[in-house]
């Protein structure tokens, strides 16, 4: 169990204490049955005593057998009835324990039966709680992503306006110095100008990765097309973009789709060893669908792999109400699908 903000778990660091508490706890079903057993036995013996019933085996064996049979029958009926009433609660507990925190929508309340009004109410309350938690998670996640994108935009603007201008001034000074420099320094000054030009190109590329200007100026489709072309020219991997329909998305959704496509193509370049990748963006239906397919080495999609950024892409999809599905097998390639309703 992890601590948050330096707060220790409820049991502290003493596993023996936690073990004792766990062992001393019994289920609610067991407590109810035990209490009913005590009440039934006490009631029968109190009634026998009030009726002056002699329970000695030598005198009244038939009465004793009848009393014992009655006690056993009442206890069995009681246990069966209690277990029947508590079974929906046990089923609800199992379903609550099986809820995936990353996918809270997987919870389904058990079907209500006779006498399970409280269990139905508890299930609905838990379902409403999951809905509120998921709504707050999406709201806070969108705020974090917006702040992150604003910071990326500011950094890209600073890199483009300030740092790039400083490099341009250095290049101009080098150009002026090369005009008056002796011939023996011409080669060194030329190498310096080449390094400055290389730094400017890398700086512009970094600024585009931080925040593509085409996304702000022209929208999702032109920005995605520009990124796919740049990806193909830089990696040598054949990349094709197919689009269907005109997207009508909120700014948060556009950013999420673009970032998922960007990370997916980055994974293709780093890990897949692919020779071809296809990007399909379909907005003609009721939901947007982004599909990225490559013919690379692939991986086992059932096993979690580090360094692929899959959790980040899935989180971006969830924050805009979508989902991310990855299908990959070794030697077959990888297909990533993002759907946004």
Summarize the SSE layout with pairings:
Layout: H1 15-24, H2 28-50, H3 61-97, H4 117-180, H5 186-210, H6 213-217, H7 220-235, E1 238-244, H8 251-272, E2 276-282, E3 288-294, H9 310-319, E4 323-329, E5 333-340
Parallel strand pairs: 1-2
Antiparallel strand pairs: 2-3, 3-5, 4-5
Helix pairs in contact: 2-3, 4-5, 7-8
Shape: elongated
Per DSSP, the total helix count is 9
Summed up, the domain count is: 2
Radius of gyration, CA atoms, in whole angstroms: 35 Å
Query: How far apart, in Å, are the first and last alpha carbons?
Result: 36 Å
Q: Please provide the count of β strands.
A: 5
Order of helices and strands: HHHHHHHEHEEHEE
Unreliable segments of 5+ consecutive residues: 1-24
| Category from helices, strands and their pairing | alpha+beta
Percent in helix? 55-70%
Question: How much β-strand is present in the residues?
Answer: 5-15%
| Strand order across the largest sheet | 1-2-3-5-4
Kindly report the average pLDDT value.
77
Give an overview of the whole structure.
The chain has helices at residues 15-24, 28-50, 61-97, 117-180, 186-210, 213-217, 220-235, 251-272, 310-319; strands spanning 238-244, 276-282, 288-294, 323-329, 333-340. The protein has 341 residues and is an alpha+beta fold. It folds into two domains: 15-138, no CATH class; 219-341, Heat Shock Protein 90, CATH 3.30.565. It has a five-stranded mixed beta sheet with strand order 1-2-3-5-4.
């Amino acid at each position: 169990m992890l601590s948050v903000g330096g707060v220790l778990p409820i049991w502290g660091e003493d596993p023996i204490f936690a073990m004792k508490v766990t062992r001393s706890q019994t289920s609610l079903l067991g407590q109810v049955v035990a209490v009913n057993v005590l009440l039934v036995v006490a009631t029968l013996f109190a009634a026998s005593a009030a009726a002056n019933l002699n329970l000695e085996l030598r005198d009244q064996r038939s009465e004793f057998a009848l009393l014992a049979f009655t006690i056993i029958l009442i206890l069995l009926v009681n246990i069966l009835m209690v277990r029947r009433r508590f079974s929906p609660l046990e089923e609800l507990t199992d379903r609550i324990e099986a809820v995936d925190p990353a996918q809270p929508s997987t919870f389904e309340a058990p079907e209500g039966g006779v006498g399970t009004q409280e269990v139905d109410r508890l299930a609905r309350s838990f379902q409403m709680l999951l809905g509120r938690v998921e709504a707050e998670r999406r709201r806070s996640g969108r705020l974090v992503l917006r702040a992150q994108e604003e910071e990326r935009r500011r950094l890209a603007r600073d890199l483009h306006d300030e740092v790039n201008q400083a490099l341009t001034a250095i290049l101009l000074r080098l150009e002026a110095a090369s005009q008056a420099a002796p011939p023996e320094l011409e080669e060194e000054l030329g190498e310096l100008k080449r390094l400055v030009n290389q730094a400017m190109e890398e700086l512009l590329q970094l600024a585009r990765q931080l925040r593509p200007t085409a996304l702000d100026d022209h929208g999702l489709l032109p920005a995605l097309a520009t990124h796919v072309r740049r990806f193909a020219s830089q990696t040598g991997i054949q990349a094709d973009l197919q689009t269907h329909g005109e997207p009508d998305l909120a700014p948060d959704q556009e950013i999420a789709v673009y970032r998922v496509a960007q990370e997916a193509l980055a994974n293709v370049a780093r890990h897949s060893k692919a020779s071809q990748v296809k990007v399909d963006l379909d907005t003609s239906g009721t939901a947007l669908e982004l599909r990225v397919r490559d013919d690379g080495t692939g991986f086992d999609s059932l096993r979690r792999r580090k360094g692929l950024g899959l959790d980040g892409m899935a989180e971006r999809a969830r924050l805009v109400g979508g989902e991310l599905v990855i299908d990959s097998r070794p030697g077959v390639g990888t297909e990533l699908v993002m759907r946004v309703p």
